[in-house]
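[Solved] Which block belongs to which protein?

Original post:
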Amino acid sequence: MNRLKLLVVLIALLSARELLLLARPQAPLTLDATQQLAPPKRGRGPFPGSTTPGHSADFPIRLDQLIPTGDLKPDGTVLIDFRITNIGNKPITLPISIRQGNLLPNPPNAEYTVDILTLWLTGPEAIKEEYLAGYLGDPNGRLYKSESPETSAELYGRSDDPQSFYALAPNQSLVVHASSRVGLKAGNHPLTAHAELLREFIGLDTVSPRSRAVHATSRVIGTTDSKPQKKMFSTGNDTTQ
C-alpha cells in the first residue's frame, strides 16, 4: 500500500514538473544577420512605413526594437535586435534564411515561391542624409531623395526548401540580430522599426529548351511597424549629453 502511494506521489510530481516546463516561456529563436551583405535596392520600396505602431490585417505581428548600446561605430552604424512576436491565435510561417541563393528553381521544378521578410529603420532626425539619397546619374552627380531607404536585414524562405521557414507559434518571438546598415547622427533621436513580408512567384522560361531566363511577380503579404523609440547615440569622442 505504501509503495502504491509513493508511486502515485511520484507520478503527480513528474506531471507537475512537465506542466511547469510547458508553461515556461520558450527562449526566442535568434538569427544572426550582422554579417549579411546588403542587397541591391529594390525597384520599389520598402516603403518608409508608418510612425504609428501596428500591423496589417492579415499579419498579426508585433515588432519591437532593442538597441543594446548607442555607441556608434566609425561608419555610424549600430547593432540592433528586431523582436518579432506572433500576437495572433494561429502559427505564422516566416522565412529564416539569411541567404537568398540563386534564382533558378531546383530541378525538376520549373517554378517556386520565395518569401522575403525585410527589416528596416526610419528616423528623419537620426539617419544621415547620405543613407536616404541616391545618385540621379547626371554629369554633376546630383543627389535626389530616395523612396527606398537602406534596409537592415532580409530573411528568405523558398517553397522548395522547408528548412528555410519557421512556424512562429502564438505568443512566441523571433529575434533578428542585425546591423542598422544606415549611419546615424550623434544625439538623442527617435527610430522606428518596420517589417514587410513579400512573396515572389518565380518561374523558369520553358518555351525554349536552351533558355534559362526567369520571370517573377510579387505581392505583399503583410507589414508591421514598431513604436518609435528614442536612443542616445554617441561616438567615442562625442560629448553630447
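(Second protein starts here: sequence line, then its C-alpha cells.)
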Amino acid sequence: MDEAIRAAQIMVVDDDQDTVAILAHHLRREGFVPIEANSGAQCLKLVHENEVDVILLDLMMPEMDGFEVVKALRDNPETAEIPIIMITARDDLDARAEGMRLGVSDFLAKPVFRRQLAGRVRAQLEVVETARNATAAMDRLEAVKNRSQH
C-alpha cells in the first residue's frame, strides 16, 4: 500500500546538465520525484540506492551510451524490469530498432514537452501496475488451485 501512496520516482539520465534540470522540473510539476544522473555509470550506481519506477535515458552520452546502460540494466535481475524511456535527438529507425531489441519501453525525441513526458511516464507506470496486478491474480488463482487439490 505504501507504494501507491509514494510519488513515483523517475530517474533522469543525460550528460547535459541543462536537459536534466529541465526534465526534472517538468517531472516535479507533474507530481513525480526526479532522481538526477549525469552519466550511465552514475545511473547504474543510483538505481541500486533508490527505488526507481521509470528511467528517462539519453542515448548519446560519452563513455557509456544509452544502449550500454540499457544492456547493463537488463542484464541485472534487480533492474531488469524497470521501464526505460529513451530520450534522444537521434530519432532514426536504426536507433529505435536497437533500443527495442535491448528492451527499451518507449522513445521520446528531443525537445521533450512536459505533457508528452508526463503522458509517457504515466503510461509506463500503468504497464507496471497492470503487470503487478496480473501476477497477484495468478498467485491467488494458484493458491486456490493448490487448496482445492488437498
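Accepted answer:
You had them paired correctly. Confirming on the second one: The chain has six helices and five strands.
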